[in-house]
Amino acid sequence: MHFKEAPFLEIPTQKIDIKKRTAADGAIYLKSWMPLESHPYRMTERLVFWDEHKPETVFLGQRNDEGEWQTITYAQTLNNVRNLAQWLLNQKVSVEKPVAIIAENSIEHALMALAALHIGIPYSSISPAYITKSKDYRRLNFMLETLTPGVIMVSDGTQSQDALQRISHQAKVVYLNHQPQGGFDAVSFANALKTMPTDAVESAYQAIQPDTIAKVLFTSGSTGLLQRRNQYA
Q1: Long-range contact list for 228-232, CB < 8 A, 24+ apart?
Q2: More confidently predicted of 16 and 91
Q3: Which of 47, 82, 83, 232 is the most exposed place for a label (fewest CB within 10 A)?
Q4: 20: left (phi over 0), alpha (psi -120 to 50) or beta
C-alpha cells in the first residue's frame, strides 16, 4: 500500500533569545529576554472586556440530559459571577479558607470558579470520584484538611452527605441538587446565585495582585502523599 507524503506548512517563527543558567544543584533556569507583550492583569479581565463589547455572545454551553443545549452569554456570566462573588465574600472566604468544588464539569462549576477568581480567592476543583468511588474518604479528607476551605460545592447533596459527615473538615456547603440531610450548614446554588453584589466585589477585584493565588491543583502525586504518610506512620 502506498501512502502519499502529507505536505507540511512552514510557519515563520521569531528568533527566541533565552538565557540559560545551571545552578550548583543541577537545576536549570531559563529566562527569556523578549519583552512581555500586553496581557490581562486579572484572570477575569477578559470576561469584563467581552461583557462590554459583545454582551449577548454565548460564552458557556452544555447539553442537558435530553441532548438540548443550555447556553449563557458574557453578560449573563458576569452578572452571575458578581452575584456568587458577593455570596462568597459574605461567607468570609480567604486564602486560608478558599473554595473547594467537588462537582462534575458544568456551567455552575465554571461560574463558581470564576466567582472565586474574580475576587482573588483561591479555589480547587476536586474530582467527584473522591465522593462517589471512595469507601473511606481518606484522600478527600486529606485534601480538605490541606485546603481548609470555607466553602465546599457539591453536585448532589444527598449523594455527598455520607462523605461530608465522615470528613473532619466542616465548611459551608453549596449543592446543585438535593439538600444534604444531617444538620449541614448548606444552601442551594440557586439561592446563592440570588445574592445582590455590593461595592465589595469591585474592591476585591481591584485588589488582586500578581502574587494573588488563583487555584490549588491536586495531582496523583500530591494525593498519594496520604498513602505514603500512612505507610510509614
Answers
A1: 230/138
A2: 91
A3: 232
A4: beta
